[in-house]
């Protein structure tokens, strides 16, 4: 039985600096409760696609010039990132972006900035610590002195503190050792299975992403060139030749 589509990206074009056409008509769908991966090499347009969805293009002098983006049937191209957080969509940017001078716990609490109920926030913090036991151990450490893996977990944990229904994850594996990447992806899978959080992630690490996602879109030069169930992509000869073993 087909699942409800939460996010529908339909033929979007994105232009940077009024001249550079970077996305040339990208379409993708994310079902409720899914883990969907956007795959492809450096510069393929993965980050730009996520930025277009969460409306973070403006700061980069980029704009969506064609197509539409719908969240549960509502057009969202003109909403601010804060509006999207209110609708349950939170982005974890590439490069982690924890506040270096704050402790892990202060970083997590910063993710609850849109909420006011202290009891709910405390409960949510406990929930984050049950998924990210490393963060609990490191709760009083300044983020700057924690490992890359802990900082990535902190960034995802902070997103979870906004109580999202969907998280956009940009390159969660970046700069991390393979066993730490596995640890991060296992937590993503757990949050998906037990909390019902939907994930759309951008990854260069095709191997790892296809192990955990249910569906994948492969991008090249601003276009989706192939899409399919993760297991089918992982067994596809072209994908094996061009993408697996990369990243
Ligand atoms: P990466 O893994 O390196 O982030 P990506 O697939 O996410 O790659 P994008 O970051 O979306 O790719 O970049 C797509 C193209 O857009 C690249 O050619 C890049 O140089 C260009 N680009 C990205 N950001 C900007 C910007 N702010 N201004 C101009 N061009 C940009």
TrEMBL record:
Residues 7-246 form the ABC transporter domain. The keyword Membrane applies. CDD domains: ABC_TM1139_LivF_branched (cd03224). SUPFAM superfamilies: P-loop containing nucleoside triphosphate hydrolases (SSF52540). One of its GO terms (biological process) is L-amino acid transport. Keywords: Amino-acid transport, ATP-binding, Cell membrane, Membrane, Nucleotide-binding, Transport. The keyword Ribosomal protein does not apply. Pfam families: ABC_tran. InterPro entries: AAA+_ATPase, ABC_transporter-like_ATP-bd, BCAA_Transport_ATP-bd_LivF, P-loop_NTPase. GO terms for molecular function: ATP binding; ATP hydrolysis activity; branched-chain amino acid transmembrane transporter activity. Belongs to the ABC transporter superfamily. This is ABC transporter ATP-binding protein. It comes from Simplicispira hankyongi.
């Amino acid at each position: 039985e087909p699942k409800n589509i939460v996010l529908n990206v339909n033929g979007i074009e994105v232009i940077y600096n009024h001249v550079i056409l970077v996305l040339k008509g990208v379409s993708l769908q994310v079902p409720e409760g899914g883990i969907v991966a956007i795959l492809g090499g450096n510069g393929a347009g993965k980050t730009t696609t996520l930025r277009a969805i969460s409306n973070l293009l403006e700061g980069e002098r980029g704009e969506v010039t064609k197509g539409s983006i719908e969240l549960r049937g509502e057009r969202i191209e003109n909403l601010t990132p804060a509006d999207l957080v209110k609708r349950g969509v939170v982005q974890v940017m590439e490069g982690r972006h924890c506040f270096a001078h704050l402790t892990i716990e202060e970083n997590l609490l910063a993710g609850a900035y849109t909420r006011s109920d202290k009891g709910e926030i405390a409960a949510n913090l406990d929930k984050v610590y049950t998924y990210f036991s490393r963060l609990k151990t490191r709760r009083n450490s300044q983020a700057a002195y924690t490992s890359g893996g802990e900082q990535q977990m902190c960034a995802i944990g902070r997103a979870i503190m906004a109580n999202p229904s969907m998280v956009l994850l940009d390159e969660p594996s970046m700069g991390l050792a393979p066993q730490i990447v596995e640890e991060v992806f296992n937590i993503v899978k757990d949050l998906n299975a037990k909390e019902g959080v939907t994930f759309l992630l951008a990854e260069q690490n095709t191997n790892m992403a296809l192990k955990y996602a249910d569906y994948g879109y492969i991008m090249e030069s601003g276009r989706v060139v192939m899409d399919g169930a993760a297991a089918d992509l992982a067994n596809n000869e072209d994908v094996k030749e061009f993408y697996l073993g990369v990243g």
